[in-house]
Amino acid sequence: MSTDLVVSDLVAGYGDAQVLHGVSFTVREGEVCAILGPNGAGKTTLLRALSGMVKARGTITLGGAALTGRPPDAVARLGVAHVPEGRGTFMPLTVEENLRLGAYVRRGPSVEEDLERVHQYFPVLKKRLKQAAGSLSGGEQQMLALGRALMLRPRLLLLDEPSLGLAPLVTRELFRIVRTINEEERTTVVVVEQNAHLALGIAQQAHVLETGRIVLSGTAAQIQADEQVAQSYLGYRV
Ligand SMILES: Nc1ncnc2c1ncn2[C@@H]1O[C@H](COP(=O)(O)OP(=O)(O)OP(=O)(O)O)[C@@H](O)[C@H]1O
């Protein structure tokens, strides 16, 4: 069955404050979709709504299964892994404990296999299995957060600002690994990222969100060539 993500007329916010005002888009199975936009546009809220962390109206379906209205653990069980801004790793726990936690919603004999798979993507984590997550470098922590998400065997991976606070070299390596994961596992990816160059470099399509509405959509190449986007998010004129 197709695992297309279909988001339709999504409305979400916090208490009385509505942040998303009817967001609609589709991501085809196995594609990478970049969400760009200024601070406060609602990008993080969009990812939270997709993973059930923020209540939303409208409809979200993944491979035909409705995600809307389900709590985060039920959404995770349907194959959605969310790597939040700030990574969400458990600092006092070891790298291995963090990784095993990633598989908590789908216990089974394959956990050891999945650990091996994560080690292949992130050899540095294998060397640090018994180390507390809090003692890792920022880049290693982001790798751990991604590795933990992979332990879920996600069909849909939601990444919120993976480059935040990381050196350019580390960020490029992370994006290279995300692209490899996407290609090898056919995992659909929605990535929110301030570094539009990097995000558009791995995405097939992109949307620009402003004050809770999509104001521009297109292929990554179209968005990259848009003068307004170039000035606002890419730092140059087309
Ligand atoms: N937990 C919360 N409670 C109340 N309001 C919130 C909460 N989180 C975010 N907001 C508000 O929702 C709006 C959108 O925030 P959001 O974090 O989704 O934007 P963003 O596009 O991800 O911004 P940034 O790029 O700065 O991370 C902002 O006005 C923000 O203040």
UniProtKB/TrEMBL annotation:
The keyword Manganese does not apply. One of its GO terms (molecular function) is ATP binding. Keywords: Amino-acid transport, ATP-binding, Nucleotide-binding, Transport. The keyword Nucleotide-binding applies. Residues 5-236 form the ABC transporter domain. It comes from the Bacteria. Gene3D superfamilies: P-loop containing nucleotide triphosphate hydrolases. GO terms for biological process: L-amino acid transport. InterPro entries: AAA+_ATPase (IPR003593), ABC_transporter-like_ATP-bd (IPR003439), ABC_transporter-like_CS (IPR017871), BCAA_Transport_ATP-bd_LivF (IPR052156), P-loop_NTPase (IPR027417). It holds the Pfam family ABC_tran. SMART domains: AAA. Belongs to the ABC transporter superfamily. This is ABC transporter ATP-binding protein. It comes from [Actinomadura] parvosata subsp. kistnae.
